[in-house]
Structure formats: structure tokens, C-alpha cells
Amino acid sequence: MTYDDSYLDSPNAKAVSLTMPLTHETYKSGNLFPFFDGLIPEGWLLNVVERNWKIDGKDRFGLLLAACRDCIGDVYIIAEDNKYVYITKRVDRIKNKMKAMEDFCQLSGRPTADKYKGSYESCSKIIKNFSKNVGIDISEFYYRLLFCFITGNSDMHLKNFSLIESKPGSRVFGLSEAYDLLPVTIILPEDQEQTALTLNGKKKNIRKKDFHALASSLEVTSKTSDVLTKRLISLEKKFIETTQDSMLPKEMQTTFIELMDSRIAIFK
Fold this sequence. Notes:
The structure is a single chain. 42% of the residues lie in helices and 5% in strands. The chain is mostly helical. The strands form 2 sheets. Strands 3-4-5 form a 3-stranded antiparallel β-sheet. The protein has a two-stranded antiparallel sheet with strand order 1-2. A hairpin with a 7-residue loop joins strand 4 (162-165) and strand 5. The longest helix has 17 residues, at 134-150. The chain is globular.
């Protein structure tokens, strides 16, 4: 990939990605660059694209052209005939202005297929490298991991954390709002892993000491770790009430509450 010379000469020029700074040099890769690969939809949306446009799932560049006319962040992918119309509204849009947004898979230089590779400890390096408010974002990241563990969300992979601009065009980045917060453990009980990435070197049998080790690695103080943990534990009654008021089937409600009780007990 090469930035156009006239674009580089523009006073408003900005990098496509935090991992691909402005330069006259050519970026080279044997595969689609992770930033662009990360723009391609997943799951059922990917199936729709493959079926409607009859594109092979292995043709990542073809998928990029077909499905990323208006995608995450402030990037447009446009084919020469300008016929592609896939559009989705996300938190990276403010009226008609776009905020740049990149997930941790893109920022770590990994293709989407590698979103389950890595550790939560290594995610802190991304925050430290690119976030404006490192301390706040690291603490929030730790808090989300605690919440996800307690609520059985075992699918918080690299694409489920992102950095986003504070406002369109600012190039000041911070941790985005949380998304994809699902109790995967009760939906897919056959999956015995408790986390999507390794936490203190493992994905199963996570204990209190593992979160202490994680906090230490993230440079979250013991005091902050304890405060965040106690805050979540104090919400146990609220979690139960919310679950009982939800549209979940009664049997699944019971399973979910029992799961949360067992996970919270680990921290008491």
C-alpha cells in the first residue's frame, strides 16, 4: 500500500491506521494488511456477503471491496464502479462526521483469523502505545474483564476491544465504549474455556490470584483492583434482578444467576 503523493502533500492528510503512519515508503505484505482485514464483517453478516455477492470467503480483498463501502472508523473502501452499498450505523458516527476506530486485532497487526491469539496482558501494550488516557483506559479495561468473567462472557477476543477518536479528526484515541457483552458461557455451555485470550497464562480455572497477577501486569494498583472488584460484587443483587426481569427463559435465568454467584464467590 502506498499513500498518494498529492495526499501526503495535503495539510489535512492523516494516516489510514495508527499502525500505518504517513510515509512516502510503500507498505508491503504477503496478505491483506491486518487493518483492512479487520474491516471485513464476521459471522452471519459475512455469510450474507458471500452469498449475495458470490465471493469466496478466502478472497479477503474481494470481500473488502464488496462489504466495506462505509465501514468501521473513518475509512471508505470504494471500487472504481462505485456500486457497493453495504452500510451500518455504529458508535464511530456523529451525524455526518466519522470517528476513526480500530480494534485490538488490527492494532496488534493480526488478521481477523488470529483474533483468539494473544493475552489480555499484551492488550495493555496497545493501550499504552496509542491511548491518550492510559491510566484511565487500563483501569477500565481491567474492570471490563472482571465484569465479563463474572457474567460468563468468554468471547472477549481482540476484535471486541477498540480504540476510538475522542471526536472526528482529532487523532486523539481512547478506549471505545464496551460492546458484544454476551453471557456466552450459558449460551454455549460445551465451551469450557472461561476467557477468549489467556489471562495469567491460562483460559480455564481462573481464580482470584490470576486477576491479581493480571492487575500487577497491567500496572493497576492493588487498591484500584480491590475497589473495582468490590464495586462489581456490590452489584450482585442488581445483576440478579436484571436477569429475572429479562426475556431469558426461566431455566436460563437460573443458570445465569448460579453462574454469577459462583464467579462472584471466587472474589469474596
